[in-house]
């Protein structure tokens, strides 16, 4: 039987506010356990929440960016369950009146086609603390630094059909969140987390199959692997005549499998009710418009502009706008060097290759935009050839000297002096009489071989155009 | 001197007739003499009280003229007090020492008030008799076989027995007003949002409100002047300027329209309480007020609605008492589940557990619409009843409680206990201010009169109460003996 996969994602991003959602504690990553937990975060008797409006601004910014409905009145609710890293015994979240309502996201899939994926809602809520089960001799440690960190939970419609689509959607979402600068959105640090609702159905069927929810997926790669595993598992169950149980499953990256959570980990009745310690959040059009006015140029608009303004290919522009930082880097290189096409090639190929190889974020790039711009400038003004530039670029990774210093130090300056070039050309003709004759006999393409020999002889420093011109003249 | 009002003590201290140290010592002596019988205090802070008194006297010598400077007060043990045990009347918090002060505590401290200690209360403020306290029941100073009312029973008994000049209380369904009525003193529940709830241990967040428990309406005004105001730490506190609540205490009541809810003079009201209130209304008529019967058609729904909303909120508010971070933890738990179950089974008393169960049930999947949502609708109807009535009249007056203080142990059925607050609960659901003042007595027990007005009309209520106290001396009456000891 042919199966169709149906996927919806629930994505939690930590909003990069200065303090927690309802207290003044810092939310910095990596602090000593329980050093960022105030008396409210510890849920001491008598303490009360005070809503952090910075979180609201970031949530609304996301909503406006995806063209979603923004609620003029949103309400916090209590979600009740007991767990040691949930100090109040309830999580404050938004159930019936989320701040961000329906919206949509256009995603370019692997096949190059764009698909519009529905966003059901996005609501604010507080994160829980962390339970640490190792190193305490049969006891558990509780770290409440993360407790109360503001989260935006973004829920997609079940519009995704393959694991690859889910990854493309998630990457697009990640890019938008980074463009908006509302979260660090680093999956490995947990500032972006993804749960996947997965079901399958026979192709052509319109009803959804029974879904399972996969939790604990903490990288883009694992999103794909976890979904693919789960789809295979569900197919196996159904094809063996079994039934899918609606349940929450954990993804285990080490074993590359999903398994059901213990029933104790799944609370079934959260007894939601409106949080009486907080007033509803009321905003007006003026507030929303003020946020809209702060929106940066978003990736789709930027891509269109790159194609238009810099005459880039659709593909190149797509690569360059994949993150706000890469796009900004590219624009510095393009404007300072004055050659957008060359800048695009260098950023999307050499720089990205370097960063991928060394697993570095562009903000940590050993080659800053200004230096790459200088390198491109030196190619453009014929100081060095494109090929020599690769050598210079490799040196730049290790050596923080200026581009010109590296060229000078290594003696890589292109030979443009006609006397010197003439000497090289003469030597090539002398050393390759057979090929020289073939050219004279009208075999045009041999010129490439002869230029190559000249470049080799000059160790790449000769200006290939000048070599080409002089060879033709001498063999005419 | 110890039976004086705060207003009188303020004058005496200012005149130098007495020092704060002398006054504080007098109350401490009184506590030593009577608290063993009354059980009004859970914690007495003798040493720190005398230090604060000394500091107050020194400040006065340097020219500090704060009205409440050096006057001894007791805090209900629901307010967090830094460095001092804050039990909320529960085994769960028997040894909980708060690392911070409630805003109310902070405000009195800044006003130079001396804190004598922490008063007994129904566990987590859940009760109308002070019998649910883990620390044992409080006795009514007027008759030690009777309850003082609850949940602010310790504060009320302490004020009535002159163990302090004034006390704080909290009122979720009548917890200031009903014990004030039973103990023959004055107790004000301000409008919801008027006094900060920061540091006040939550029972039902949308209903809880702190207020003064004292010996006169004028004292209540002086105390509210200190307590009221916006607090950034409590999002439900209201950004509305605080008036001087003593400023309108001289206003005439000529032409004041008083509404008498017919539902509060119906079946269930004892004849002696009814007579006392009707007599009090005659006093108002003498002052030129006009009495008018009004209708609060949804009155009968207030107790049922309250016993859904309050327990629902409480069921979540009390989830934090899980034995993980502070408070009681059971011995040798075998696992997490066992720790939760035994900690909460052993740490909470019966009434608290009953309300957690009721609240959990009311919020459960499938029951939410029938209980919680419906109760919220009723709450709006009740609020509308008051709004409509208050378009026609300035204040609403009736009995605070259907009868005088009842005998300890006489109400074993929870529902009959819940019906104790039948006249007071609707006011919490509507968020309105209300006061109870003494207005008579029967069989040696005080009778309380309930005065309600519109949102943030505390000044009006206080003046209506004050004018009555100028004409009568019910608020001046004292038990002739406490626990068999002559006073």
UniProtKB/TrEMBL annotation, chain A:
Enzyme Commission (EC) number: 6.3.5.-
Coiled-coil blocks: none
Species this chain originates from: SAR86 cluster bacterium
Reactions the enzyme catalyzes: L-aspartyl-tRNA(Asn) + L-glutamine + ATP + H2O = L-asparaginyl-tRNA(Asn) + L-glutamate + ADP + phosphate + 2 H(+); L-glutamyl-tRNA(Gln) + L-glutamine + ATP + H2O = L-glutaminyl-tRNA(Gln) + L-glutamate + ADP + phosphate + H(+)
Protein name per UniProt: Aspartyl/glutamyl-tRNA(Asn/Gln) amidotransferase subunit B
GO MF, one example: glutaminyl-tRNA synthase (glutamine-hydrolyzing) activity
Subunit structure: Heterotrimer of A, B and C subunits.
NCBIfam families, per the entry: gatB (TIGR00133), PRK05477.1-2 (NF004012), PRK05477.1-4 (NF004014), PRK05477.1-5 (NF004015)
Biological process annotations from GO: glutaminyl-tRNAGln biosynthesis via transamidation; translation
Gene: gatB
UniProtKB/TrEMBL annotation, chain B:
GO molecular function terms listed in the Swiss-Prot or TrEMBL record: ATP binding; glutaminyl-tRNA synthase (glutamine-hydrolyzing) activity; transferase activity
Known EC number: 6.3.5.7
Catalytic activity line of the entry: L-glutamyl-tRNA(Gln) + L-glutamine + ATP + H2O = L-glutaminyl-tRNA(Gln) + L-glutamate + ADP + phosphate + H(+)
Pfam families: Amidase
UniProt KW keywords: ATP-binding, Ligase, Nucleotide-binding, Protein biosynthesis, Transferase
GO biological process: translation
Broad EC category: ligase
Catalytic site positions: 76, 151, 175
Listed GO CC annotations: glutamyl-tRNA(Gln) amidotransferase complex
Coiled coil: none
Ligase as UniProt keyword: yes
Domain Amidase intervals: 22-462
Similarity remark: Belongs to the amidase family. GatA subfamily.
General function of this protein: Allows the formation of correctly charged Gln-tRNA(Gln) through the transamidation of misacylated Glu-tRNA(Gln) in organisms which lack glutaminyl-tRNA synthetase. The reaction takes place in the presence of glutamine and ATP through an activated gamma-phospho-Glu-tRNA(Gln).
Record text on subunit structure and interactions: Heterotrimer of A, B and C subunits.
Protein name as annotated: Glutamyl-tRNA(Gln) amidotransferase subunit A
Gene coding for it: gatA
């Amino acid at each position: 039987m042919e199966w169709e996969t149906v996927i919806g994602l629930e994505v939690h991003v930590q909003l990069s506010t200065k303090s927690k959602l309802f207290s003044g504690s810092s939310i910095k990553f990596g602090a000593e356990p329980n050093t960022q937990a105030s008396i409210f975060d510890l849920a001491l008797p008598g303490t009360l929440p005070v809503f952090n409006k910075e979180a609201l601004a970031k949530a609304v910014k996301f909503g406006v960016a995806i063209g979603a409905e923004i609620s003029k009145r949103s309400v916090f609710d209590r979600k009740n369950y007991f767990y040691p890293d949930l100090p109040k015994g309830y999580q404050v979240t938004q159930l019936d009146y989320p701040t961000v309502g329906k919206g949509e996201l256009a995603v370019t899939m692997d096949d190059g086609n764009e698909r519009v994926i529905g966003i059901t809602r996005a609501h604010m809520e507080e994160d829980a603390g962390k339970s640490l089960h190792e190193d305490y001799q049969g006891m558990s440690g509780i770290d409440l630094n993360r407790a109360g960190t503001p989260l935006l939970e973004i829920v997609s419609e079940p519009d995704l059909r393959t694991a690859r689509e889910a990854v493309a959607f998630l990457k697009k979402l990640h890019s938008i969140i980074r463009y908006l600068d509302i979260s660090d959105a680093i999956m490995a640090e947990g500032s972006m987390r993804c749960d996947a609702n997965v079901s399958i159905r026979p192709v052509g069927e319109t009803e959804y199959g029974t879904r399972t929810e996969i939790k604990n997926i903490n990288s883009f790669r694992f999103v794909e692997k976890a979904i693919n595993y789960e789809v295979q598992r569900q197919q196996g169950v159904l094809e063996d005549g079994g039934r899918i149980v609606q349940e929450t499953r954990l993804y285990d990256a080490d074993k590359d499998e999903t398994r059901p959570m213990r029933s104790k980990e799944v609370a079934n009745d959260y007894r939601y009710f409106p949080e009486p310690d907080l007033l509803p959040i009321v905003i007006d059009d003026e507030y929303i418009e003020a946020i809209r006015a702060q929106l940066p140029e978003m990736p789709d608009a930027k891509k269109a502009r790159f194609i238009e303004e810099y005459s880039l290919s659709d593909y190149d522009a797509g690569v360059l706008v994949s993150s706000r930082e890469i796009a900004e880097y590219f624009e510095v290189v393009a404007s300072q060097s004055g050659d957008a096409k060359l800048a695009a090639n260098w950023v999307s190929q050499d720089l990205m290759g370097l960063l991928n190889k060394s697993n570095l974020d562009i903000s940590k790039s050993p080659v800053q935009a200004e230096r790459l711009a200088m390198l491109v400038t030196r190619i453009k003004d014929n100081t060095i050839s494109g090929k020599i530039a690769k050598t210079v670029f490799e040196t730049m990774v290790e050596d923080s000297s200026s581009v010109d210093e590296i060229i000078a130090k290594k003696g890589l300056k292109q030979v443009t002096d006609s006397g010197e070039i003439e000497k090289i050309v003469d030597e090539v003709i002398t050393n390759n009489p057979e090929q020289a004759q073939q050219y004279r006999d009208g075999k045009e393409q041999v010129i490439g071989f002869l230029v190559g020999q000249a470049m080799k002889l000059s160790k790449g420093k000769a200006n290939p155009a000048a070599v080409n011109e002089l060879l033709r003249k001498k063999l005419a | 001197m110890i039976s004086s009002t705060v207003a009188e003590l303020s004058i005496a201290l200012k005149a130098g007739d007495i020092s704060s140290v002398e006054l504080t010592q007098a109350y401490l002596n009184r506590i030593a003499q009577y608290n063993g019988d009354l059980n009004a205090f859970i914690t007495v802070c003798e040493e720190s009280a005398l230090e604060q008194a000394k500091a107050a006297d020194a400040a006065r010598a340097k020219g500090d003229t704060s009205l409440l400077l050096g006057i001894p007060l007791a805090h209900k043990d629901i307010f967090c007090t830094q460095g001092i045990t804050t039990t909320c009347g529960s085994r769960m918090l028997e040894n909980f020492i708060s690392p911070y002060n409630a805003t109310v505590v902070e405000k009195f401290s800044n006003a130079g008030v001396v804190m004598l200690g922490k008063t007994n209360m129904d566990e987590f403020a859940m009760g109308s008799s002070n019998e649910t306290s883990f620390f044992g029941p409080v006795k009514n100073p007027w008759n030690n076989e009777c309850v003082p009312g609850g949940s602010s029973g310790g504060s009320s008994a302490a004020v009535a027995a002159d163990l302090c000049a004034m006390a704080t209380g909290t009122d979720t369904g009548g917890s200031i007003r009903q014990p004030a009525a039973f103990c023959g003193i004055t107790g004000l529940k301000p409008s919801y949002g008027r006094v900060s709830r920061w540091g006040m241990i939550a029972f039902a967040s949308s209903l809880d409100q702190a207020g003064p428990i004292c010996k006169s309406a004028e004292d209540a005004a002086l105390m509210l002047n200190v307590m009221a105001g916006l607090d950034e730490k409590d999002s439900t506190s209201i950004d509305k300027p605080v008036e001087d609540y003593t400023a309108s205490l001289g206003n005439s009541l000529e032409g004041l329209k008083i509404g008498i809810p017919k539902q509060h003079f119906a079946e269930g009201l004892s004849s002696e309480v009814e007579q006392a209130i009707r007599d009090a209304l005659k006093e108002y008529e003498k002052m030129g007020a006009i009495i008018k019967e009004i209708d609060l058609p949804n009155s009968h729904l207030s107790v049922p609605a309250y016993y859904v909303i309050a327990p629902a909120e409480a069921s979540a508010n009390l989830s934090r008492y899980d034995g993980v971070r502070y408070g009681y933890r059971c011995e040798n738990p075998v696992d997490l589940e066992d720790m939760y179950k035994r900690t909460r089974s052993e740490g909470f008393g019966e009434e608290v557990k009953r309300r957690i169960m009721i609240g959990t049930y009311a919020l459960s999947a499938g029951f939410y619409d029938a209980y919680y949502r419906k109760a919220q609708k009723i709450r709006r109807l009740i609020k509308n009843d008051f709004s409509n009535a208050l378009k026609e009249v300035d204040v609403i007056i009736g009995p605070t409680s259907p009868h005088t203080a009842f005998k300890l142990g006489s109400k074993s059925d929870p529902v009959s206990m819940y019906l104790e607050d039948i006249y007071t609960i609707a006011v919490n659901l509507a968020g309105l201010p209300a006061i109870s003042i003494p207005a008579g007595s029967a069989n040696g027990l005080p009778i309380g009169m309930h005065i309600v007005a519109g949102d943030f009309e505390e000044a009006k209520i206080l003046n209506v109460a004050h004018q009555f106290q100028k004409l009568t001396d019910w608020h001046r009456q004292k038990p002739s003996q406490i626990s068999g000891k002559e006073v």
